Amino acid sequence: MSSIPSASEIDEEAADWAARVDAHGLDVEHDPELQAWLRGDARRAGAFLRAQAAISFLDRGRALASVTPPVETIVAERPNRRALLAGLGGSVAAALAGGVGFWSLRPRRLDTALGEIRRVPLADGSLVAINTQTSLDVAMKAKSRRIVLKQGEAWFQVAKDPKRPFVVAAGVARIRAVGTAFSVRRGDEPGAGVDVMVTEGVVETWIEGDESSRRRVSAGSRVILVGTASPVVAETPSEIERSLAWRNGEIALDGESLEQAAKLFNRYNSRQIVIEDPVLARERFVGLFQTNEPESFAAAVAATLGAVVADDAQAIRISRAHSS
User: Fold this and answer.
1) Distance between alpha carbon 225 and the CA centroid of its chain, in Å?
2) How far apart are CA 161 and CA 54, in angstroms?
3) DSSP letter, residue 4
4) Between helices 7-24 and 44-65, what is the axis angle to 10°?
């Protein structure tokens, strides 16, 4: 009596079949050996589709990495097997023929911790760079691509697919693109609104439920969407590039006050910068720093402005030097 194969054994067989299909261009629907293997166990169809999705994911990741170097090593999350099997409907051939892949079956949650910056290739060939303390859901469907930005900030490089609109939802704000690049940030404070910056192409923005709020925003421009108020559009290409320096793990200062600079560093570090003198806090500063090196910023402030730095495990305190 033959033993029932384990899930891991089926996964290994599925990986082998997916590799053969990828390497030799087998016809999934009409290959007799593959079809016989799929019919042999109800679990095999799901395992096979997972394996194909993994190959597709890695191929897109390598292609994108050749254009945009990742800030950090990306570890792909493990697919949810039960969600995949439930959505498969028993026939991998029907799923593939209908254009419904693994990523369409359940939204994918992407989160970053304090100070973490990630670059993640999406299943459609797009790329998302995710800033510190950000949470978003990705749902890739046959006729749409939808991102729900729950908190934080992300920059999207969108693969062209006119038949599948790419829409980011951030509260009541909506941003739609077909093939372009743009960032979306939800303000940390109530009423701060949603900040959209476009680096390539054109996006359409609007407030859900208010058709009169629709605007087209082109590359080099930014728009602040706040509730039902009219959006504020400004063309600030150089400011946009500096604001998005975080994609490379950097903070670019060009005349920001020390108070503003401290807030930027504090977004990425548990050890907070505290400017103890209100007059010193209004001083302007210029420089390029790593997001995870607040000590370098403090040392530069001390050298440039003659300030005094005192640090401990909880904070980096910057104050004016006492005159003797």
Assistant:
1) 20
2) 21
3) P
4) 50
pLDDT at 70 over 50: no
Instruction: Please report the sign of the dihedral spanned by the C-alpha atoms of residue 261, residue 181, residue 165, residue 76.
Output: negative
10 Å CB burial of residue 262 (0-12, 13-18, 19+) is buried
AA letter at 126: S
Q: What DSSP character marks residue 113?
A: -
Phi, psi dihedrals of residue 27, rounded to the nearest 5° = -85, 105
Cα radius of gyration rounded to whole Å, the chain: 24
Q: In the block, which residue shows the tokens 């500096």?
A: 242
The full set of domains in the chain, from first to last, is 1-106 (no CATH), 107-245 (2.60.120.1440), 249-320 (3.55.50.30)
What is the rounded CA–CA span in Å between residue 88 and residue 146? 21
- The encoded tokens of residue 112 equal 């970053």
Strand order from edge to edge, sheet including 166-170: 108-111, 135-140, 145-151, 166-170, 173-177, 202-207, 210-218
Q: Which residue has the tokens 């369409």?
A: 104
CA 108, CA 114: separation in Å to the nearest integer?
A: 20
| Global pTM value | 0.68
pLDDT in tens, 166-225: 999 999 999 999 779 999 999 877 667 899 999 999 999 999 888 888 899 999 999 999
Tokens of 97: 């023929």
226, two tokens: 């706040």
DSSP string, 239-308: HHHHHTGGGGTEEEEEEEEHHHHHHHHHTT-SSEEEE--HHHHT-EEEEEEETT-HHHHHHHHHHHH-EE
H/E segment holding residue 298: helix 294-305
Amino acid type, 177: A
Whose tokens are 């680096």? That residue is 199
Q: How far is CA 8 from the centre of its chain?
A: 31
> What torsion do the CA atoms of 12, 17, 20, 25 make, to the nearest 10 degrees?
-150
Closest of 24, 23, 86 to residue 49, by C-alpha? 86
Q: State CA 273 to chain mean position distance.
A: 27
